[in-house]
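Quick one, probably user error.
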């Protein structure tokens, strides 16, 4: 039997056997038998050396054609068997389309982030611009330019986290800012009045943690400078903020207070949301919670940034942002905002 006849016989046998295969394991054995290194086809190709030139051309072309036919047949049959197995598995298992889908929790903004954005929107609607500043601050901007020199007792009320105490060569001491008020100076140095800004951001105090105090928290600073600004403008602005954020039925209280960079100074307190004025742990049994300090910008602060206090005046205020949702929602512990308890955070 010639080599060409052997190839024809091999083709007929291989394809007939391929049609009878019903599983992938037998198909793999078929591939080894007809396309492997020890297959008849490989033996015929190795025997080409003993043939004449004309026979080599004819047999070689026929052998390569047969190899391509068998490889294509193998691949097509393998895919067909795989599809058949997947279909059989699907029919066996079945899919109940009436079953409810699996719940995929959606991410959301942290409550402090939500409140910060809401506060910003309120003041933006009143003509204020939102600006941001560095968290690592120079002693000059954090204290001295705000009328708090190194010997001033007000520094003792802000337990400071120092980054660099400075050197005798004139290097400025650096610290993690204790309030967002330094941006008052930075903005007034560059922007002439009239101006209105709010400055949200992180601040840092080296102090013990309890229900109303943590060493890292958020503040938002407000500043307005223009001709003819009075204490009435300050109170009107803060009353409007309280009305929009807490509702018209929430009581607000102003009392005199002292801050070195304002004169006169005041504190603003909101009726406690937990006890509604009767006294509880959150408000220290007073019925009120202070949310911000405020006042008219001190003339010395204006002079330091080359703004004439005889022509211009201004007001400033600063509030702790975490205390705002505490008052609105009746949260009695500030640490809950940073405890990563999803049962708490998902409520907002």
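Nope, works fine. Designed sequence:
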């Amino acid at each position: 039997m010639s080599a060409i006849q052997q190839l024809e016989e091999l083709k007929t046998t291989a394809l007939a056997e391929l049609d009878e295969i019903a599983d992938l394991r037998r198909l793999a054995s078929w591939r080894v038998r007809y396309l492997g290194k020890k297959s008849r086809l490989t033996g015929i190709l190795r025997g080409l050396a003993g043939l004449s030139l004309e026979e080599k051309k004819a047999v070689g072309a026929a052998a390569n054609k047969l190899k391509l036919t068998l490889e294509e047949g193998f691949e097509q049959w393998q895919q067909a068997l795989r599809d058949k197995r997947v279909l059989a598995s699907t029919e066996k298992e079945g899919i109940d389309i009436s079953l409810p889908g699996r719940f995929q929790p959606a991410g959301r903004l942290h409550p402090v982030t939500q409140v910060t954005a809401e506060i910003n929107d309120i003041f933006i609607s009143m003509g204020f611009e939102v600006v941001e500043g560095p968290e690592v601050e120079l002693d000059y901007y954090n204290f001295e330019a705000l009328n708090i020199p190194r010997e001033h007792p007000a520094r003792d009320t802000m337990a400071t986290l120092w980054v660099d105490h400075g050197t005798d060569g004139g290097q400025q001491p650096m610290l993690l800012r204790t309030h967002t008020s330094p941006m008052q100076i930075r903005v007034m140095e560059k922007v002439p009045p009239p101006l209105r800004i709010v400055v949200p951001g992180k601040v840092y105090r080296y102090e013990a943690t309890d229900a109303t105090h943590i060493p890292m928290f958020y503040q938002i600073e407000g500043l307005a400078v223009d001709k003819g600004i009075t204490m009435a403008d300050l109170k009107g602005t803060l009353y409007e903020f309280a009305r929009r954020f807490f509702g018209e039925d929430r009581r607000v209280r102003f009392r005199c207070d002292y801050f070195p960079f304002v004169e006169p100074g005041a504190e603003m307190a909101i009726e406690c949301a937990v006890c509604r004025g009767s006294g509880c742990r959150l408000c220290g049994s007073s019925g009120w919670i202070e949310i911000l300090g405020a006042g008219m910008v001190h003339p010395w602060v204006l002079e330091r940034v080359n703004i004439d206090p005889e022509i211009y005046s201004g007001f400033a205020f600063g509030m702790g942002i975490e205390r705002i949702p505490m008052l609105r929602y009746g949260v009695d512990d500030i640490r809950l905002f940073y405890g990563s308890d999803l049962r708490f955070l998902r409520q907002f």
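Strands lie at 129-130, 136-138, 161-164, 174-176, 195-204, 216-226, 252-257, 262-271, 288-297, 313-320.
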